[in-house]
Design goal:
heterodimer, A: mainly alpha, 4 helices, 0% strand, extended, B: mainly alpha, 5 helices
């Protein structure tokens, strides 16, 4: 009787629940967190290039300035702002506030709207400054 | 010298033997990262597309370099702990989980090391 535990029934998971805003934003918080994790390679590349000299700095800046680079950086900006705002919601919950159903649903929607809005705002400023 | 009794040391640490350590570090680093990263975003917006000398000159400013270094340190701790949670949630085979956790630690420290050396080199050597 090896491994009886492996065939035990599992309790129902994500698929049995209705998809709601707080759930979607919880999943997005994880996905953006993971994206930020791997995106640190970009930050490290930029800093190392800046520390290495003008030539490598210009090379990395050239890559970041390409169309693909700009799309990745735009997505990275959004992931950062979305995760940051989501983190503030989590801090609020950790402190014991904001558990009301309507309020937390409203805040989940606001999180997405604000992160998209702020990202576009940051990029408008960047493009105007340039 | 540690004057605490063995019982006092393990009290409140639970079955994982680490208590709320993981939770607490994730929260404290996240709170620290809010102002740090907002500074970072504003800095990048200000210096995007500027010539090399100007950007490096700004990064070499002691205040900017300090913020930069602190951001790197807080980020590395936060990203490692965050990915640890994800791995523990989704990787069920013990050997695979161990491998992922070790790779996670290595990756985080490598990124942290690279960023920190770059920041300090710019700060001290230009």
């Amino acid at each position: 009787m090896a491994n009886v535990t492996k065939n035990r029934p599992l309790s129902p998971h994500l698929q049995v629940y209705k998809f709601i805003p707080t759930m979607a934003m919880s999943i997005m918080h994880r996905i953006t967190g993971a994206a930020l994790y791997f995106g640190t390679v970009l930050v490290a590349a930029w800093l190392i290039a800046a520390a290495s000299g003008e030539e490598s700095f210009n090379q990395v800046n050239g890559l970041f300035g390409s169309l693909v680079g700009q799309i990745i950086l735009f997505a990275y900006t959004w992931a950062l702002l979305h995760h940051l705002l989501g983190g503030l919601r989590h801090i609020m919950w950790d402190l014991g506030y904001g558990f009301e159903k309507e309020f937390s649903t409203m805040l989940a929607k606001a999180n997405l709207a604000a992160s998209v809005g702020l990202t576009i705002l940051v990029w408008i400023v960047v493009l105007v400054v340039r | 010298m540690d004057m605490r009794t063995p019982l006092g040391k393990v009290r409140g640490l639970g079955s994982a033997k680490s208590g709320t350590d993981h939770f607490w570090k994730v929260r404290t680093t996240s709170v620290a990262l809010v102002p740090l990263l907002l500074f970072y975003v504003v800095f990048l917006v200000m210096y995007v597309g500027r010539p090399y000398a100007e950007v490096v000159g700004a990064l070499a400013n002691p205040f900017v370099a300090t913020i930069n270094a602190l951001t790197v340190i807080a980020s590395v701790i936060h990203m490692r702990l965050g990915m640890e949670e994800v791995i523990q949630d989704y990787v069920h085979s013990e050997s695979m989980k161990l491998l992922c956790l070790v790779l996670n630690a290595f990756f985080s420290l490598l990124i942290g090391g690279l960023c920190l050396v770059a920041v300090l080199k710019i700060a001290f050597a230009g």
